[in-house]
Design a protein that fits this description.
heterodimer, A: mainly alpha, Ferritin, 60% helix, B: three-stranded mixed β-sheet
C-alpha cells in the first residue's frame, strides 16, 4: 500500500461528511435539496473509495478500513467531526470541506502516476459541481437580510474548527506519496485564499481563516465519530451478514 | 490475429453490445460506457467508463458483462478495467441518443436541452442534481412534461 497519510485522513473526512450529509436525504429542506444531498453524499463516498484505491488498498482492505478499524486509528479533521447541525451550518461546513478537497486534489499532479492524475481530474469535475451548489446556497443566505448574519456566524464557527484540514496525523508527519507538495502549510494557505474568494463572491464577509495547519488527532475521543461508526457498523450487522458492498 | 480469434472476438463484442445499463434500458455500448474489449487467450479485458465515479450501478454492470462473456464461452475469465477518464455526453452514440429519447431522456450535446416528448427547446432546468448522479431534471414549458437529461460532471452548470 502506498504511504499517503494526509490523503487517507481526507478519506476519513469524506466518509464522515458524506454520512452526515446523507441525513438530509430524509430530513430535507425540500425535495430538490434531498436529491442533491443524496448525490453529493454518494460522491463523497466514491471519492474516498477511489482515493483509497489510488493508495493501492484492495477492496477487502478498504472494507476493513471502514468497518473494522478502531476509532483510535481514524484521523478525521475537527471540521468533519461536527455533530449534526442546522441547514446554514451544514452549508458552511460543506463549503469549507469542498474547497479543501479541491485544493488537495490540485496537489495530486504526479507525472509518474498517470492514473492518480486522472482520478484528480475526475474529482475536480465532480467536486466543482458541489462547489457551485454550496456557493449558490451562500448567495441565497447573503441575499436574505434575515439569514445573512446567521450564515456569516455559522461560517465563522466552522472556520474556527478548520485548523487541521491539512494537518498530517499526529503520529505520521508524512510525506504523502500521492501529493506533489510536501508542505501542508501551502495547502492550508491556498484553501484559506480560495475559500475567502468564494465567500466574498457570494456576498458573505469571510472570517479570518486558519492558515497554519495543526496535526490531526486520533478520533477515539470523538463522540460524533463514535456515533457514526456505531451507525454504519450496525448496518453491517453483528455477524457481518449484511454485506452491501457500499464502499467500493 | 487468426480467423478463429477474430470470430471469437466478434462473438464477444456482439454479446457485450447487448448488455444494458442496470437502470436505463439502453445498451452500455450506446451510452458510451462500454469502451472496448480485449481478448488475450482465455482472458477477456472489458473497458468500462462510468458516467460518474460514484455510479451505483457498477457492480451490476460488472456482473452483467461477466454473464455475457461467459455465455459465449464459460471457460473465459473476465476482468473489468474501470477507466478513470470522464464520460461525456458526446460519447452517447446516435443510436443511444435515439433510444434515450424514445424512453423520455434528453442528452445534452452542447446546445440547450430539448424535450424528448415534443422536441421543444423551451425547457426549464429544475436543478443540478436529479434522481441519479448522471441525470438532471427539466420541465418542458411547451408540453408540460418533466424529463431527465443525461449529463456529465464536465457540463457547465449554467448551460441548458
Amino acid at each position: 500500500m502506498i504511504h499517503a497519510p494526509l490523503v487517507v485522513a481526507w478519506c476519513d473526512d469524506l466518509f464522515l461528511h458524506g454520512h452526515q450529509l446523507a441525513h438530509w436525504i430524509t430530513d430535507y429542506v425540500d425535495l430538490e435539496e434531498s436529491l442533491a444531498m443524496g448525490s453529493i453524499a454518494q460522491e463523497h463516498l466514491a471519492h474516498a473509495a477511489a482515493l483509497l484505491g489510488a493508495c493501492e488498498m484492495s477492496n477487502v482492505e478498504r472494507d476493513a478500513h471502514v468497518y473494522q478499524r478502531p476509532a483510535s486509528q481514524w484521523f478525521p479533521s475537527e471540521l468533519s467531526m461536527l455533530p449534526r447541525q442546522d441547514w446554514p451550518a451544514t452549508v458552511a461546513h460543506a463549503l469549507l470541506m469542498n474547497q479543501g478537497l479541491l485544493v488537495l486534489r490540485s496537489h495530486m499532479q504526479l507525472p509518474d502516476k498517470p492514473r492518480v492524475q486522472q482520478l484528480a481530474e475526475i474529482i475536480r469535475a465532480e467536486q466543482n459541481l458541489h462547489a457551485r451548489h454550496w456557493a449558490r446556497w451562500a448567495r441565497v443566505f447573503a441575499s436574505d437580510p434575515g439569514l445573512c448574519d446567521e450564515f456569516t456566524h455559522r461560517v465563522a464557527e466552522a472556520a474556527a474548527l478548520a485548523i487541521d484540514l491539512f494537518g498530517f496525523p499526529v503520529s505520521d508527519a508524512g510525506p504523502d506519496a500521492l501529493l506533489a507538495t510536501a508542505d501542508p502549510a501551502d495547502m492550508q494557505r491556498q484553501w484559506a485564499e480560495a475559500t475567502t474568494l468564494v465567500l466574498e463572491d457570494a456576498g458573505i464577509t469571510a472570517p479570518t481563516l486558519p492558515d497554519v495547519p495543526k496535526p490531526r488527532r486520533p478520533g477515539d475521543t470523538s463522540e460524533p465519530l463514535a456515533r457514526v461508526l456505531t451507525e454504519l457498523r450496525w448496518a453491517r450487522g453483528p455477524s457481518g451478514v449484511n454485506r452491501y458492498e457500499v464502499y467500493r | 490475429m487468426t480467423d478463429a480469434a477474430d470470430a471469437a472476438t466478434g462473438a464477444l463484442e456482439a454479446a457485450l453490445a447487448k448488455v444494458e445499463d442496470p437502470e436505463i434500458p439502453v445498451a452500455l455500448l450506446d451510452l458510451g460506457v462500454l469502451r472496448g474489449v480485449t481478448v488475450d487467450g482465455t482472458r477477456v479485458l472489458v473497458q468500462i467508463r462510468p458516467t460518474r465515479l460514484g455510479c451505483p450501478g457498477r457492480n451490476n454492470m460488472e456482473r452483467d458483462v461477466a454473464t455475457a462473456v461467459k455465455a459465449v464461452d464459460p471457460s473465459l475469465t473476465v476482468e473489468v478495467d474501470w477507466e478513470l477518464l470522464p464520460w461525456r455526453e458526446r460519447d452517447v452514440t446516435p443510436a443511444g441518443k435515439a433510444a434515450l429519447e424514445e424512453i423520455g431522456y434528453a442528452v445534452l450535446l452542447g446546445g440547450p436541452a430539448r424535450c424528448p416528448y415534443c422536441a421543444s427547446e423551451d425547457v426549464r432546468s429544475d436543478g443540478e442534481f436529479g434522481g441519479a448522479l448522471c441525470k438532471v431534471p427539466y420541465t418542458c414549458r411547451a408540453c408540460g412534461s418533466t424529463f431527465d437529461a443525461m449529463r456529465s460532471a464536465l457540463a457547465c452548470g449554467r448551460c441548458g
